[in-house]
Amino acid sequence: MLASPVGTFNHQEVIERVRELTNASVISHAIVGWPISLRGHENDSTSMVQAFINRLQKNFPNLHIIKLDERFTSEIAKKSIIDSGVSRKKRKQKGLIDSVAATIILQNFLDQNSF
After folding, report:
1. What is the mean pLDDT of residues 92-114?
2. Does residue 31 come out as left (phi exceeding 0), alpha (psi in the -120 to 50 range) or beta?
3. What Å distances lie between residue 82 and 3, 6, 92, CA to CA?
4. The pLDDT value given to residue 26
5. Residues 50, 55, 56, 58: is their CA dihedral positive or negative?
6. Do 36 and 69 meet the contact criterion of CB atoms below 8 Å apart?
7. Side-chain-facing half-sphere of 63: CA atoms under 13 Å
8. What percent of the chain has pLDDT above 70?
9. 42 φ/ψ angles, rounded to the nearest 5 degrees
10. Is 3 exposed, middle or buried (CB count within 10 Å of its CB: 0-12, 13-18, 19+)?
11. Are 22 and 10 in contact (CB under 8 A)?
């Protein structure tokens, strides 16, 4: 199985987009990047992600949410984007980096689990 991005969404759009995805197909799991420090401790971003997870659970009670360590994924994404030959201007777009990083997190999960 190969992971592929479906886009990046702001806080207002994400619940509706997940609703569209769950209506279009059977989705049982959501993989969420879990921001922790290099030493493995929770940080300021962790509480924001937990609030997002709480919103997902409220709106989709049957969705199994899995938190995965997202350390270094943005750096790996940046390197991957550079290696793929994307222009310097496009490389600076945060949405592109976030999308590639999310794809890396999902691919890591798929590589470690079989469905």
Report:
1. 90
2. beta
3. 19, 21, 10
4. 79
5. positive
6. yes
7. 24
8. 99
9. -70, 155
10. middle
11. no
